[in-house]
Amino acid sequence: ISPQAALTAIVTVPTRADIIAMDAGAHLNVHWHIADENPPALADVVRELVKDMDKDSQVFIGLEASELRAVKNLLLDDLAFNRLNMHATAYWKQGLDADSLGAQRTRSTQ
Fold it and tell me: What percent of the chain has pLDDT over 90?
């Protein structure tokens, strides 16, 4: 990624003690979403951070399945981000382990 690129990341961690240093350069702006500090809903955080962002920005999302749905719908339906520039993956689903989520995805694409 070019050092001239403006990068914004929202990283959810369980506690403040889980925050780590990010070695990505000064162009990375990290917003920590700390679960045990009763943060606002992730979609609300996203809405605030992207309100002035170019709608053709590249967007990469990796979240729990229900949070992914909420954030993706916000970006596409409410804020009109370009669908072709969105890369989204549910890495887990509440109540399922990774293997079960993979099996569920396989069944839904058949």
Answer: 70
